Amino acid sequence: MDNIAGKTPALSWAKNIAMAAMVLIWVIPTLGLLVSSFRDRDQISATGWWQAMLPVELTARARTVTEAVADGPLFRVEGDIFDDEEARSYFSGMPGDISAFGTRGAEPTAYPPGTTADLGDGETLTVNADGSYIWITPEEPGSRGQRVYFAAESPPKLTLDNYRTVLSGDNMGRAFINTLTVAIPATIIPILIAAFAAYALAWMEFPIRGLLIAGIVGLLVVPIQLALVPVLNLHNDIGVGQSFVGIWLAHTGFGMPLAVYLLRNYMAGLPRDIIECARVDGATDFQIFIKIILPLSLPALASFAIFQFLWTWNDLLVAKVFLPSADEAKVMTVKIADDLLGSRGGDWGILAAAAFVSIAVPLAVFFSLQRFLVRGLLAGSVK
Amino acid sequence: MNPLIQGLATIVLGVGGCVAYFYASNLLLDRVLYPAKGPNIAANIRRANTVRPWLFIFPALLVLAVYLAYPVVGSAWRSLFNRSGDEFIALGNYVALFESPDFRRSFLNNALWAIFVPVMSVTAGLIAAQLSDTLKWGNIAKSLIFMPMAISFVGASLIWKFVYAVDSDIGLINAMVAGLFGAGPVDVIQIPFWNNFFLMFILVWIQTGFAMVILSAALRGIPEETIEAAILDGANPFQIFFRIKMPQIFSTIVVVWTTITVASLKIFDIVYAMTGGNFGTEILPSYMMSFMFRDDGRATSVALVIMIIVLPVMISNIRQAQQELR
């Protein structure tokens, strides 16, 4: 169609630009999160992630040393501001020139470098661009030096510290394992059960088959909110309670209608001849299912498996209801939504790293198995 | 590592149990109950074939009955009782719901979600499908727009929390507002009424890829002759799109529309993670969660309201399935 469908150069340009704009809107938020997860705390609060590759001007504070030299009636203290441990801690790598300094927290950048600040009572402070300072005071400095605030450029720095903090502390590693523990059984068990049922509904003759199919299609849209209270009560009554077994069963139940529906549609589309030939040769339905239908249905099974995995991995609501609220049973989504957003709400680097840990597995699954995912979607929605 | 081992054990037990059930029950049927040999061979085969479908379908039916069919009845029944479930109060919970301003606001917000999310996702998905189909880098563009489908709603909320952040050194929106207009920071999450749309956009961001993939398959399925004929008749690209293509993919648009509508009616994670239902963004599922674990009567009555809203979709689904079977 390329050569006919109204292809004027102007239109083609407009299409390219419009598409590029849309892709940018769709990608930039995730990119921002990825970049932020590698930046350290001070840099995140100093400049936006889109400037992550540029040096950051940080405002730091330090104290002068206290070894004074008598200079007439006055005392003179000299040193290098970057010798101070607190000042160093703000800068990773080589700090740049000092761009301003001050002596009060309220005005940390009151004076340009190289000028002499008058602190009153005959006290003066000079800070040079290279970090050297001269503090002149009429009284002997005690055990504490003079507070100095200054601004200097810190080179861009990418670090894995956020990931280290997230994975080592905060029980996020545990949550990662919990999420796996929920998602894997909750993916395999429903598929197995659904495959048998789908075969029966597609290829076996029995009364009320049509009614069952219609019923399953109806159950497709039952909101899971409806199930929360009665099923949790049922779980408590039969002794399952809030537990991993409970959430596996719940996910199995909630995923079942779509699994049966998709697999039945796929299996019903397989050629009738193959199945009838096998029947004539004396194969039982069990053998036909295992040896013929199952291998032929692999693409459909794979695409549903991906879906089920993605949404058991990504689920928040079912986990909140069917898992205990104790920290050691939390999955990552609950951990992030309940713990991190509350207690670490302002700690953007940690939040970004935690989010990336939780979306890394789905993204890997997505990019490696995208073809199956699309195929599954199309099988279910386009007639 | 304990949970990991526990998980592995369940996979083995659960999967093994399922396999064992199917294998053993069929073996029992074929060898012990109705063996395909001896004097009654014909009758036995016939009987075995009557029973077998039920063996295949039983576990699925059991799970469906317990987790989806029973809850419809169970919730309806439970919603007629008081907080602790020991006193029958008929429609008391529903009366209390409709008198509550929080419920009314949740209901209206939910309606906003159910109207605007499908409109925006389908429109964006259609535009993306139409644009990407004729571009050389269309497939790359498609997978980038499709990518948010893989991200959890909580992850997506966090991603957009960065974009919406008040601090113009973190939030892209505020950085642009400051850069372009020099205006002070705005907290879009706290602007009454409009904050709902900022939350909705997160779901649109997720669902557009879904709409795009399906609509682009439908667009490709349009026979080329109809388009060629239109071009020969002198139709411009917009006429081709709105008069020729749109009507032919209409049924697919309806399917995508209903799927996204149902998804947006149940959305909970985004509101929970972004605002916790504060600042007037509460929706029915998050309103329901505020009663979960402490007032089962109220919680189930809210759930039933959600169910009643999706009922038309359910009925139309069942009708369509029955038509297809015929």
Automatic annotation (TrEMBL), chain A:
Provide the ABC transmembrane type-1 domain boundaries. Answer: 176-369
Q: Which GO terms describe its biological process?
A: transmembrane transport
Q: Tell me the membrane topology, using the record's own terms.
A: Multi-pass membrane protein
Give the CDD domains listed for this entry.
TM_PBP2
Which InterPro entries does its entry note? MetI-like (IPR000515), MetI-like_sf (IPR035906)
Q: Does the keyword Transmembrane apply?
A: yes
Which one Pfam family would you cite for this protein? Answer: BPD_transp_1
Q: What is its main location?
A: membrane
Cellular compartments per GO CC: plasma membrane
Going by the UniProt record, its keywords in alphabetical order are:
Cell membrane, Membrane, Transmembrane, Transmembrane helix, Transport
Q: Which residues form the signal peptide?
A: none
Task: State which residue ranges cross the membrane.
Answer: 17-38, 175-199, 211-232, 244-263, 288-311, 348-369
Its subcellular locations are:
Cell membrane
Q: Any keyword Transport?
A: yes
Identify its protein family. Answer: Belongs to the binding-protein-dependent transport system permease family.
Q: What is this protein called?
A: Binding-protein-dependent transport systems inner membrane component
UniProtKB/TrEMBL annotation, chain B:
Q: Is this entry keyworded Nucleus?
A: no
Q: Sorted alphabetically, which CDD domains does this protein's record hold?
A: TM_PBP2 (cd06261)
> What range(s) does the ABC transmembrane type-1 domain occupy?
107-317
Give the record's membrane topology. Answer: Multi-pass membrane protein
Please give the InterPro entries that the UniProt record associates with this protein.
ABC_transporter_permease (IPR051393), MetI-like (IPR000515), MetI-like_sf (IPR035906)
Q: Where in the cell is it found?
A: Cell membrane
Instruction: State which residue ranges cross the membrane.
Output: 54-73, 111-131, 143-163, 170-191, 197-219, 249-268, 299-318
Q: Which UniProt keywords apply?
A: Cell membrane, Membrane, Transmembrane, Transmembrane helix, Transport
Q: Which GO terms describe its cellular component?
A: plasma membrane
Coiled-coil annotated residue ranges, if any: none
**Which GO terms are recorded in the biological process aspect for this UniProt protein?**
transmembrane transport
Keyword Metal-binding appears in the UniProt entry: no
Question: What highest taxon heads this organism's lineage?
Answer: Bacteria
Family statement drawn from the similarity comment of this UniProt entry: Belongs to the binding-protein-dependent transport system permease family.
In its UniProt entry, what is this protein called? Binding-protein-dependent transport systems inner membrane component
